[in-house]
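Hey, resending since the last one bounced:
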Amino acid sequence: MSLDISHILSQWPYKPGEVTARRIVGADGQEKIQLRLDLGLLQMESSGRPDGQRPHGHESLLAYHEYLLQKHIDQTGREEGFWLDEADCEMLRGEGVMYYHRYLAEFVLGDYERVDRDTMRNIRLMDFCRKYARDESDKYILDQYRPYVIMMCTRARAHLAVNDSRPKAALAAARKGIADIEAFYETFGGAKMREHSGELAVLRALEKDLESKIPVDPVEKLRRELAHAVEAEQYERAAELRDRLRNMNGQES
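The structure tokens again:
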């Protein structure tokens, strides 16, 4: 049997600048996800570790190290003394790339629940490395990707809420994602990064789109107008808006 996959690739052309993915049923009868690349394709399991492996009998390498942490705590009664060496962190980062490829494909396929699952898993990985890596550099290598992962998770949750006819929940998810990314930049002193963040630009555009789909709350609209009037020192206008708010709140009561 020929091992050449040229016939498969010829039937599924690569499109530069476009992420292309599909679901298939494998020879084992289980669903697989394929991601088309310029020089071939990736095939991943739809659950568990994307390559189907179970390191040390655990679902993932991260799960194995979490098990070792818990074992250490059970034996010593504390977290101190548990750490990840350079090789551990390198292997964990490699595993994280697998999940990145899968949630990218899942997003294209509209499988937003699994995008949420895999992005949150990689955020958990980032938190784990930041807390337990022995070398300072290994603590923060993955953190440079945190805004992107938060953005993808946020978009997935917003899509899920919209599909469930909950636009307000979608808007809340978008605003939380924006706040989380801004907090990240604030922590690491990245004011310029925040100004030029593509992830924030995407989520703010999403926020604006979601706002346009939600009926205007007259009370909230007045509150915003009042805030703007106060900021602009338009005090007569502010007093008028304040009285209107009081009247509307009294009617609601």
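The CA atoms of residues 81 and 182 lie 33 Å apart.

Sorry for the duplicate.
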